[in-house]
Amino acid sequence: MLEISSQALSGFLINYPSAVVVDVRFANERDEYGYMNVSHHVPLFTGDWEPNPDFATALSAVAPPDAIVLFVCRSGNRSRVAGEMAAEQGYTQIYNITGGHVALLELAAIDTSLNALLTIPTVTA
């Protein structure tokens, strides 16, 4: 598994438009903090932190084993675990987005061109 930084992500997706981004966070994390527009939601864990028994099936539904697959979570830890699990399933072109969604949001605050990649919920008072 390779690591890819949030800074390199936009260019990578331009160069590899068929790459599949898999968001392994909980649904409430996506709702609360946003997500990458191109991502597929395949949670690594159930709501009570048990391994998702459908992870392998759901992953194969969005990406064949020969696809370039980029995993993202909140900080890069769960996505690393997901990448390891994908490798066990025969996936060979696996990337972990280092720093996860947190790093993407931090970078988007500086580089607004990344906002096109993200859906960020608006905060209402």
Describe, in plain words, how this protein is organized in 3D.
The protein has about 120 residues and is an alpha/beta fold. It has one domain (about 1-120): Rhodanese-like domain (Oxidized Rhodanese, domain 1), CATH 3.40.250.10. The chain has helices at about 5-15, 25-35, 55-60, 75-90, 100-110, and strands spanning about 1-5, 20-25, 35, 40, 70, 95, 120. Strands 1-6-5-2-4 form a 5-stranded parallel sheet. β5 (about 70), α4 and β6 (about 95) form a beta-alpha-beta unit. The radius of gyration is 14 Å and the shape is globular.
Fold topology:
Elements: E1 2-4, H1 6-15, E2 20-23, H2 27-33, E3 35-36, E4 39-41, H3 55-62, E5 68-72, H4 77-88, E6 93-97, H5 100-110, E7 118-119
Parallel strand pairs: 1-6, 2-4, 2-5, 5-6
Antiparallel strand pairs: 3-7
Q: Key features?
A:
Oxidized Rhodanese, domain 1; alpha/beta; five-stranded parallel beta sheet; 5 helices; two-stranded antiparallel sheet; globular; single chain; 125 residues
